[in-house]
Amino acid sequence: MTAEDEWRLLLALVSREFGLVFQDARRGHLESRLTPRLQALGLESFGAYHRYLARHPQRGAELSMLARILPNNETYFFREAHHFDLLVQHVVPQLSMPSRCGPLRVLCAGCSTGDEAYSIVIALQRAGLERAGLPWQIDACDLNPECIAQANQGLYEVGSLRACDEPERAAHFCAQGDRFRLRSEHRKGTSFFEANLAVAGLELPGAPYQVIFCRNVLIYFCEEAFHRALSHFHRALDQSGYLFLGHSESLIGRRSDFQPVRLGDSIVYRKRGAGS
């Protein structure tokens, strides 16, 4: 077996376990992430690493390590901020009718360090939902347990605040050395948990959700994992709910069970037959 054949086997294993693809330009990214692991384990080739992940008694621990180092985890507060405007200006008014009982339930899937989930909380507070007595529950999940731990701490590097101006930083964060801690009032109604969106049979504990955010995650998934994640969302989404994807992600021509809906200048998605 050639080195290239062994590399393809490793790619297939990563895709099977995590749903991630590292073809073409992203191959160098994967090699740079895995090379330190080979060195730490005393392995001489990616083929040997594949055999370790496939058969070694400690494979579970190493797969857990990969869950920490393989995902992109690129995120920051108020990324693609127009989505938060759409949420409070178009979606919340529709979902906050007097006949609806219980809190607004939102899922952030692939939440990384929680920047998106907390951005939603701040957006809802700015819109006056708290003053109006309209409650919410923001659930957020990620594959990486270290990201979940940081999200629960609410402590961020300056890069996470790149889209915040100085008044916003002062209003929402407390400086701690060279880092910033989110103020406790902006962490209300949030809950974080670990989840692998690529696995079959995933149950999302807070379902049904009225809104699901999964932005800039599916672009890294193989085709099978892409459809598996969308099936999870379809089951978990309320019949009248909304799915927000990243600007470079689209379901048009790829899923028949979601219909595109224009809100403002953006396209979001609802279950087929949910209305316009």
Keywords, please?
single chain; 276 residues; alpha/beta; Chemotaxis Receptor Methyltransferase Cher, domain 1; Rossmann fold; 2 domains; 5-stranded parallel sheet; 3-stranded antiparallel sheet; 9 helices; 20% strand; globular
What series of H and E elements makes up the topology?
HHHHHEHEHEHEEEEHEEE
Low-confidence sequence ranges: none
Residue-averaged pLDDT, rounded? 93
CATH architecture of the largest domain: 3-Layer(aba) Sandwich
Question: How many domains make up the coordinates?
Answer: 2
| Class per helix and strand makeup | alpha/beta
Please describe the topology of this protein.
Elements: H1 3-18, H2 27-41, H3 46-55, H4 59-69, H5 82-95, E1 104-109, H6 115-126, E2 136-142, H7 145-153, E3 155-156, H8 166-172, E4 173-176, E5 179-182, E6 190-194, E7 209-214, H9 223-236, E8 237-245, E9 258-263, E10 266-271
Parallel strand pairs: 1-2, 1-7, 2-6, 7-8
Antiparallel strand pairs: 3-5, 4-5, 9-10
